Amino acid sequence: MSSEADESVTFSLTVDGAAHEVTAPWSESLLTVLRERLGVRGPKTGCAHGRCGACAVRVAFEPDRADDDGHVLCSCLLPAATAAGCSVRTIASIGGPDGELSDVQEAFLAEGAVQCGICTAGFVTAATELLDTDPDPTREQIEAALYGNLCRCTGYGRIVAAVETAARTRREATP
Amino acid sequence: MLLAAPRFALPETVGEALSALAERPDAVVVAGGTEVMPDLLWRVRTAAGFVSLRRVGALRGTSRDGDELVVGAGTPVAALVDAEAGALAAAARSLGTPLVRTEATIGGNVVSALPYRNMLPALLALDARLELTSDTGRRTVAFDGFTTAPGVTRLGEGELLTAVRLPTRPCFSDYVKIGRRNAQYVATVSAAVVSRNGAVRLAFGNAGPVPLRSDAVDVVATALLDGRAGPDDLRAAVADAVDPPEDTVASAAYRRHALGVLATRLVVRAQVDAGLGS
Amino acid sequence: MRRPDGQAKVRGEFSYAGDLHAEGMLHGVTLRSPHPHARLLRIDTAAARALPGVHAVLTAADVPGDLHFGLTLRDEPVLADGVVRYAGEPVAVVAAIDPRTARRAARAIVVEYEPLPAQTDPTLAADAEPLHAEGNVYRHLAYECGDPRARGVVTVENTYRIGMQDPAFLAPEAGMATPTADGGVRLEVATQWLHSDQRQIAWATGLPPEKVQVVLAGVGGAFGGREDVTLHTHACLLALATGRPVKMEYTREESFLAHRQRHPGTIWLRHSADASGRVVSVEGRVVLDGGAYASTSPVVIANTVTLLQGPYRVDNGRFEGWSVRTNNPSCGAMRGFGVPQAAFAHESQMDALAAALDLDPLEIRLRNALRRGDTATFGQRFTQPTPVREVIEGLRAVPLPPAGGKLPGGVGRASSPGSVRRGVGYAVTMKNLAFSEGHVDESTATVSLRDGHATVHCACAEVGQGFVTVAEQVARTVLGADTVTVTQPDTLIASAGSTSASRQTMASGTAVHRACVAVRDRLLARVARERGLDAGLLSIQDGAVTCDGTPLVDVAAATPGHTVRATEHFAHPPTTALGQGDVYVGFAFSAQRAVVDVDVELGLVSVVQIASCQDVGTVVNPTQLLGQIEGGIVQGMGLAVMEEVVVVDGHITNPEFQDYLIPTIVDAPEVVSVYVTDPQPGMPHGWKGVGEPPLCTAVPAVAAAVRDATGLPLPSVPIRPEHIALGIGTPPTVTRTTPRPPATTGGTALSEEPADRPGTWESEGAAGH
Lengths: 175, 278, 769
Description:
Chain B: This is Xanthine dehydrogenase family protein subunit M. Chain B: Residues 1-171 form the FAD-binding PCMH-type domain. Chain B: One of its GO terms (molecular function) is oxidoreductase activity. Chain B: Keywords: FAD, Flavoprotein, Oxidoreductase. The complex is a heterotrimer. Chain A contains 6 helices and 5 strands; from the N terminus they run αββαβββαααα. Chain A has helices spanning 4-7, 30-37, 103-110, 120-133, 139-146, 157-173; strands at 8-15, 18-25, 56-60, 71-74, 87-89. In chain A, strands 2-1-5-3-4 form a 5-stranded mixed β-sheet, sandwiched between helices. Chain A is an alpha+beta fold. Chain B is an alpha+beta fold. The longest helix of chain B is centred in the last third of the chain and has 22 residues, at 252-273. Chain C is of the alpha+beta class. Chain C has a domain at 442-571: Aldehyde Oxidoreductase, domain 4, CATH 3.30.365.10. In chain C, 25% of the residues lie in helices and 28% in strands. Chain C contains 17 helices and 33 strands. In chain C, strands 9, 10, 15, 16, 17, 31, 32 and 33 form an 8-stranded mixed β-sheet that branches. In chain C, helix 5 packs across helix 6, helix 9 crosses helix 10 and helix 9 (339-357) packs parallel to helix 16. At the A-C interface, helix 3, helix 4, helix 5 and helix 6 of A face helix 1 and helix 15 of C.
């Protein structure tokens, strides 16, 4: 039997711009650390084994490098301690502080891409990364970028429509 | 070392990783975490500690060494989706999901050594070699034969897989897999082909307890490529060579059948590439 | 109109049951049986109780009230009582300071089992050794109409199998129970039916229902899977035992083990038709595997059996079915509630008849289409709009998609255009709406209006379907409210019934509508009184009170500081027991055409497009309507080609999302959705339920398309790649028969009394759908 001290590690983590010192069991996932230890509940627990994408967050592993804008991953699969010193952005970093919606959030709402909404934060996070990389994706590219996110309510039709709408909005906003 | 605790280490160099492992011989070496974390959740594995390779920069990225491509074992699969070798790229592109590929590493895929893992048939067909590093030095072994049973490899105690080396000689190569939906699935079976100078080399996933290839199959596949054999000959040769599992996902009979179909289709693609087919 | 909860949802700020948190809360964990059938010889909780941080360990002996619960028969123990009947059955629950400690404590509980033979074959269940004092048959029903021996020139028969589907809502079960000052308990939980939970929790806790307060927490999907009690009672018992708030949240694996799945079933059907394709007689027999405990099995079987006729006129028939107890996982409500099983079977038969008679698949359906005024095999007359022909014609007008599209096998790249064959398949279905067989279908709403702000209170569970949108839309439209709050549902108001059976827009939507109308009338009466006007001339238009069309004053300023409130109730006309009249409140009809590309050699399928024409009454909210159609179609397509809970010797082998496959965005077809709008009588503006028909129809439509592409019989869903590649599945038997006109006509006669026991059905609309 190991001692409690053996079970835990302490490390720093920046979440949505706020610095945290975390002490957690060494095998604990980033998702659990975010939700249970830091009270950051935007990322959701859908499956906890990397299949549904409801827990998607954007992580920069080298946050001091200007060119590391992070990438989106399943926070349930990442042992949190291996992200020591990293910067995590959740759904709370998308959209403005006073309730303003990002173009992607706005489109999800306008197109009816939200029903129960448990998958929505993950979809918005993944779709935002897609449009940051490619502002004019084809339908095939949208599907290729989003098949790590499951939705059980919508049948995906409105989600594809939302991403297409957001892409159009973004293109029109940047002449 | 970025972080060290009695049962956890986050090294930054291979040297640090080796000593961290030496100090924690029971720890699980974890790279992307995409296999280890679900295994812990499903209780199919317990871990007495983690030695994480995630922050070992030297293990990430690809380089050329003579006529070999050296892929660091910690390179995420997402970095390989545009690899020159078609089989490698296709296997990488269809692994897991976009959110998993950025984390899952080629090394993790090799060391996990389950017969359905995406990269394995591609590496076998491409005749990959593995670079294994320990305190006592480095050795290079063929990937063919590295896996001895599902989940079991010839990786030694205290040894790390540090790179995968692939020949860069020009070839046609491709990879296909099938499952029960059209994205994000574990391979029911998979297959890879390499065709170089008129010779075909095939490899199969989930066709037996370990990634599988056979000289007898390649002889028939090569004959099919240049028109000396027919598709049925190849299917028969594949059916003889494979020993696929029977489980709740698919019957062994279906897997055997499908492996023959995949083999034939891959050889036809090689034919087309070589300007031999229609 | 946009979803009122949408802003919070897209920002990740919406609070779901899994997000519940309270100061000092404990975490509850469940110890489950590893055996599908075993005797409990000994439970020793001493070691678990002794662990630091553990506050309570409860077993059956610690349940203060009635140990048994259930939606129909009260046959399920809150915690295992002497024997376990399925793998995953709760044996003990633990509350501790954190989830890790609670899990550790659960592992420290010593349970000695004596494994018993697991009875896992539903076809043997009826005659097997009883697994429970209540017996192994949840319900047997059988009836005839006309002359079942009547024959046409051709008779086709086959046996169809439907696999077990998991609702697979994406937010696993979660809730938090808090002891209240009056000795009661308050449970915030993701559920479909607050009052049903309240009643069942009251039984187990021994509390009067008014001391059990149930409040809806944010729900991440439901699809029927939250109709039964799972962790609800456990959380309440733990909270009462510890005096602290207790949160429980299942893992995905536990979710599979704990909630009810769609019934797997075997259906034998024999159809006989005349040369023109008119169905002369139908005989059918159904066995549904209800698993270890009753849940809604006695009700589901009635849906499956009675709707075997499909949306077709059938004058002669014989129908029989059993839902039975086994040591498999318990099955209950899932979207469609017994009808997808029937639909798959009857539509497969219609195609088999069409093939035998060389008729177009739509033509044979048109020739048999039900019409208003026809009588169902179960004796109910179709007195409401019955637009079967209309949905078929509407579907026929949708153009076919061009060649090409996503290849079968998707990202695996095994297929090429040359290896693919296209298939087109059709299905038409009938789905009953609302509760049935005498179970009261009702709802109540309270609406208040003050200075232009409306507040709607109703116990209708919002599970994602968009009731909150409907409620707000109604309040804005009827009351001219500037802002609307739909309060979180709770048990302080009367029951709204379950969010299931496609019923909430009809039931709770109507209750809200009636309450809004009452508030409006009171507001107008007051304005009339204050201004000395004739109330009959006043109305509300565009946010203003108008007199004879002339705006008088904004609603927001009409009665400053004064609150107008009304509570209204709605109930559908009563239904009756089977064989005694109207069994169902109403029906919805749906036609779909699936276009698939199939790689026949490998058995891979790509569903390219599904076109749908559905009878929707009137369109309440076009975006939400489309969301229901698209979402239902993709769930149905999932059952047709990939989704199956695999149970081997009573154990679920795939209780996770690696091997239980729901459609991804790559699998989802393009959906083209058109509607027949024929207002439903008795409903405000002719509203009608829409949630279930898309799923029911998609299952047979996709299967038919795959059959068309492959020429294979494919009598089982989900269709597996090997069914196609290896040609597995028995074709229908086609017999050229000597025509025999019916010897008797008309009438529905129960062959035997249904086997539900009088007095065991609960008073409040227990789960009839």
